[in-house]
Design goal:
It contains 8 helices and 14 strands. The chain is an alpha/beta fold. It has 2 domains: 180 residues, Quinone Oxidoreductase, Chain A, domain 1; 110 residues, Rossmann fold (3-Layer(aba) Sandwich), CATH 3.40.50. Strands 3, 4, 5, 6, 7, 13 and 14 form a 7-stranded mixed sheet that branches. It has a 3-stranded parallel sheet with strand order 10-11-12. A two-stranded antiparallel sheet has the order 1-2. The longest helix has 17 residues.
Length: 307
Amino acid sequence: MTAEYAIVINAFGGPEALEYEEINLPTPAADEVVVEHRAIGVNFHDIYVRSGMYDTLTPPGIPGCGAAEVITAVGDEVNHLSVGDRVCYVTPIYGAMATARVLPARLAIRLPDELDATSTILVHAAAGGVGRLLCRVASSLGATVLGTIGSPRKAEIAASAGCTHTINYRTHDFVAEVTNLVGPTAVDLVYDSVGATTFAGSLEVLGIGGHLVNFGQSSGAVEPLAMTTLAAKSLKVSRPIIFHYLRDPKVYQSMADTVFEWFSSGTLVPSDMIRLPLEHASRAHQILEDRNPRGGSVVLIPNHQPL
């Protein structure tokens, strides 16, 4: 039997708290499958789990919310999946940072043949994986896309993904720059994964009835918001958590089908990947915490797969 390995958090702390250890893989229950991982997503949620900011993992535990790709065993009651199927998943049930894992079969989504396993990675940053996907989809729908970035290199990356205008938030006041580009209160929708340092400015640039989607907090948690702030321009704020959208298997599958179709049609293009061995998970976390100067997604590759 092939030895399996995982990143284990035995105590909360910095990147050094991520330890590479051999694990015993349990036998799948009747409604479960075993997935051999070939690509494992890394994002800021993992950092909050590792540090103890999120009280959602009890050490010792294996972090990680999403991975891909091959099913190597299925439980007796699993009829819609077979050994050899290529799948991906996102789940609040931690355990993705491992060479393989046992997973409830309902969470496994088949990958289209033309997609690479790393296409399901989620990252936060304007020129990173999620930022590029948002730019591509919005620009394909005809929107004018403004993007904040942290370096000239990231400006090039965002522009290549369909960003109409880029603003370096390290050297410019992004509120003033947005106003110069499109006028005051001309923005209809803002996607903000940064949080504390950008939230107030994001509200400021929105027009009447505008919508702010806050889906991350890489700079820290957002302070409590007074309803009168929203009332000033009839604004809307949403704070989606992906796990809430995965409870209904039909919704989960529908969302995946939509994204796969965007990739198949060329609307979305997989971003550049920083591929690191699974045992270097601490380095992956450090790259994210350093705001990933190279841009792109960070993905962990188990040692049985080529980088």
